[in-house]
Amino acid sequence: MKLDSLRDLLVEQLQDLYDAEQRLTKALPKMEKAASSPELKAAFRKHLAETEGQVERLEQVFEQLGEKAKKKTCKAMQGLIEEGEETIKEEAEPEVRDAALIAAAQRVEHYEMAGYGTVRSYAKLLKETASVKLLEKTLAEEKATDEALTKLAESVINVEAA
Ligand code: FE
Ligand code: FE
Ligand code: FE
After folding, report:
1. What confidence tens digit (pLDDT) does each residue in 55-67 have?
2. In tens digits, what is the pLDDT along the chain, a chain of 162 residues?
3. What is the CA(161)–ligand 1 centre distance, in A?
4. Residue 78 covered by a domain
5. Domain harbouring 20, CATH code
6. What angle do CA 102, 12, 108 make, to 5 degrees?
7. Centroid of ligand 3 to alpha carbon of 162 (angstroms)
8. Number of Cβ atoms within 10 Å of the Cβ of 32
9. Does the predicted model carry a pTM greater than 0.90?
10. Which of 28, 56, 62, 70 has CA 20 to 30 A from 39's CA?
11. What is the pLDDT of residue 14?
12. Are 28 and 44 in contact (CB under 8 A)?
């Protein structure tokens, strides 16, 4: 795809996010299964439901822009998920594995926050107000998830110290 305009770049970035989110709908159940802490399991389950909504939101944004919903392989998310899967396979104490799962998940959330921050700004510049609103909703969910994971990381580490 040749990028002639900011609009083309917006669409390309949305296609990357669309691929990334769909990969996450498959990865999050595995992370939930691998987690030991009930709170961490619940956090992954909650974010799976949100992620499914985020996929739909992206479909709405494509529609608002008059574009077909298409995926462009997100190699970064592929890699982040691969790292998470390595963590799952490694032999580890449950609390340590939980901490490692949180570390992997927070990398994912930060990648998403960067991606949604970018598309939100492009949509704003292009005066795509309805899309801005949807993208901001998702951005807020990614941020809230990251903050919840930070709190969980602290409680996992507290268990270890006790
Ligand atoms: Fe997401
Ligand atoms: Fe990407
Ligand atoms: Fe997320």
Report:
1. 999 999 999 999 9
2. 788 999 999 999 999 999 999 999 999 999 999 999 999 999 999 999 999 999 999 999 999 999 999 999 999 999 999 999 998 899 989 999 999 999 999 999 999 999 999 999 999 999 999 999 999 999 999 999 999 999 999 887 666 655
3. 32
4. yes
5. 1.20.1260.10
6. 5
7. 30
8. 18
9. yes
10. 56
11. 98
12. yes
Residue with tokens 């570390």: 103
Ligand nearest to the CA of 75: 2
Q: How far is CA 32 from the centre of its chain?
A: 15
- Does any domain span residue 1? no
- Cα of 160 to ligand 2 centre, how many Å? 35
Environment class of 152 (CB within 10 Å of its CB; exposed 0-12, middle 13-18, buried 19+) = buried
Compute φ and ψ for 129, nearest 5 degrees: -60, -45
**Residue-range definition of the domain harbouring residue 142:** 6-161
Residue-level pLDDT at 156 = 77
Alpha carbon distance 114, 21 (integer Å) = 14
CA-wise closest residue to 148 among 53, 49, 47, 80: 47
Q: How many Å lie between the centroid of ligand 3 and the Cα of residue 82?
A: 16
Q: What is the count of structural domains for the chain? A: 1
